[in-house]
Structures are given as C-alpha cells and as structure tokens.
Specification:
Layout: E1 2-11, H1 16-30, E2 33-42, E3 51-53, H2 62-72, H3 74-77, H4 86-107, E4 110-116, H5 125-138, E5 141-146, H6 162-168, E6 176-180, H7 183-193, E7 197-199, H8 216-227, E8 234-238, H9 249-259, E9 266-270, H10 279-291, E10 295-298, E11 308-310, H11 320-326, E12 329-332, H12 341-348, E13 353-356, H13 361-365, E14 372-374, H14 380-391, H15 393-410, H16 413-424
Parallel strand pairs: 1-2, 1-4, 2-3, 4-5, 5-6, 6-7, 8-9, 8-12, 9-10, 10-11, 12-13, 13-14
Helix pairs in contact: 1-16, 2-4, 4-5, 8-11, 14-15
Amino acid sequence: MDKIAIISTRLGGIDGVSIEADKWAETFLSLGLLPIYIAGDFVKTNNIKKYYLIEEMDFYHPEISKIKNYAFNLEKFKDSYKSFNLIDRIEVIKNAIKKKFNQILAEDNIKYFSVENALSIPLNIPLGIALNDIISEHGIKTITRHHDFYWERDEFLNNNVSAILEKYFPPDINLIKHVVINSQAKESLFKRKKIKAEHIPNIFNFKILDNPKYDYASSINKARDFLGIDRRDLLFLQPTRIIGRKNIERSIYLVEKLSKKINRKIFLFISGSPEKQEMDYFNKIIEIAAKKNINLILSNNYKFGNKIIRVKKFFKNFDIYELYNACDLVTLPSDIEGFGNPVIEAAAFKKPLFVNNYPVLKDIIEKGFKFIVIDKVVNEDCVKKVLKLLLDKKYREKITNINYEIAKKFYSFEFLVKKLKAFLN
C-alpha cells in the first residue's frame, strides 16, 4: 500500500486543522493510501496509527518561538535584534528538520505529502522552507491545504522576512497542488501570487451518525447527567477554542438576553481550552460571565469563582459529537473563520445555529441554509428568532431538516473522496 504523510506543526487535537487532517486521512485510506502523521506535537495519539514526532516542527518549540518573535515583533525585540542572527538561526533549524525528515523518508517509502497549513502561514518559518526543499529534492507529489494565509493576519504584516514569506508561503512549484477551503482564499491566492487553487470545503462524515453512541436519547441523558443539567434546562454549545476572534462574549450576551424572556435555566458550554497567548481574553470571558450571572461550563478545571461550573476531564468521558446531540443550540459568533466546521456539524446533528456573519460564511449560506445570522450585534430581532426555534418544535424540525439535507448534499465524505481521487491521479 502506498503511503501518504499528513504534515503539520501540530496534529491530533480538537483544533480545526487537526480535525480536518483526520478526515482527509480517512479519505486517503479509503482510496488505498496508508496515512502517516508527521508533526511537532500531538495533542492526542490514540486515533493515529503511525506517526513521527519532529519537535522543531512545533510552533511552540523554544527556537521557533524565538525566530517568530524576531521576525514579526520588531518593535519589542529591536534592541537585541543585532545579537540574534535571524537568517542563520532559520537555516540551522531548517537543516535540523530536513535531516529528520530525510531519516523518515529513508525508513518509510512515502509517495505523497498532504501538508496542512504549514505552507500557508509562517508560524514556523524553518519548517516552510524545509518542506519546500524536501518536496523539490525528493520529487514528492504534494497536496497543500491552506486554511488561511499570512497576508490575512495583522500579526504577520509588519515583518523583516518579506522575501521569505513571498517565496515559501506558499511556494509555487510544479509538484504542489494547492487546495483552499473557501472561495475568497482562492481569489486572494491567485490575485497575490498567480497560483491556481482548487476550492474544497471542509466536510462532515455522515456515517458517524449511524454509530449507536450518537443516539439522541442516549447522548442527551448521559451528557446532561454528567453535567448536572436537567432535561428542562437549555444547553448551548460553543464548540471552539477560547480565543479573541471567536467573540464568545456574544454568546454570553445572547444567553443573558434570552434568560430574561424564558423561564428556563440556560447553560453555555465552551468545549475548547484557552490558548497560551490568549489568557487575557480567557479571563475577560470568565469575568463577563460571572458579572452577568451566566451558567458557564468549561471543559476542564480552572480556579475561578462560584459562577463557573468546573467539569473535570469531560472529554475523557464524552466526545464533541455527543455534546452536539445533547445541546439545544450551537453558537459560533466569530469574526473570522477559515471555514467554520461548527456550521456543518450543527446542520448534521439537526441543531439550530446562532452565527456571526463572518466573511467566508457566504460560501455556505448561499447553498440555502437557514441560520440565525447576526452582524456583530446581538439585537432583539436575533433574540426573537432564537426563541421561536427553541419554543416551536415543528418550526425547529422544519428548519433543521432543511439544513441537514443541504449539508449532506454539499459537504459529505463522498464529495471529498471524489475530489481527492481526481487530485491524486
């Protein structure tokens, strides 16, 4: 069986890149390819059959963090910049990554690469350069999927490595086929670098729903019992990490406004953890929730006040799909998403969705989905629409059935198989 390497800075977690990488790995397996994971860190490895760890690929590696700081935080590190030879350090780490990759290639006869975002944004500059070299030197056919680009993020615009970014993020070489997850990215990549890309959106494997584990009655009882939530109470799911661009405060405002209009307890479950660099935002969310007396549920233990329900190791007992089954509403009030997996997941599990009108939502909405869409503000009109969906069962079933059928038509596993099969031929 031919082998394909799934490559990224980090894999195996609950972030969007890792989740989509797992879906592609399953698709490659169905096409007769054996997926092998190569990354700098694995959040969990129980679902990964074979993997290689190259620590320098992780964007939290001390040397990579230092390179990133000197490449992009110019003002902060300008006084010590002269004593740090940035280009030399990039070269040293690049060579270390290449050496370890070459050892893997000598051990495993890998025919293809599937690169997840590592050639899109410069979280790890040496890795991007190393991958370009390895692909060229070994003649490895590569699919590189771009979840977002560096020119779309303010943090990368002020830099002193512009020539490197232009050449390697992403590189334009014949061995690479480029994939983007939204139409705006396709247009942006061609306009900026004259690189043509295929638009392949993220998908949901609807076969998952056949698993007895995701039986609605079973999930709603087990998960709610674990959380201590009564069947009459409402459970809202924010299935994201706790980072600023997710604008979780909008979900809190929605709960606050609804609580004044409905005689039922509302719980907001945030499934993800805070990122290391986003602890100020995390504390802000906790403070807002406590101030507004919101029943907030976190997926792990944190030392905060009495207003927070602390759930120890929730995801050792359940997975995110059981939580989708148990909830009454999914919330995604983000300003920016490369795609927005919760949109399709909410449709698949026939749950109403409260979502901010982030730019690339247009690709999805135009298919005919019926969501509660806001433009950054949780207003009275939005609250009325949510109330109708929560209180009118027939109306809710009508809307969620429409969304389910659209999602199954345009965002299924079978759709992805066809696309990737054509790419590999």
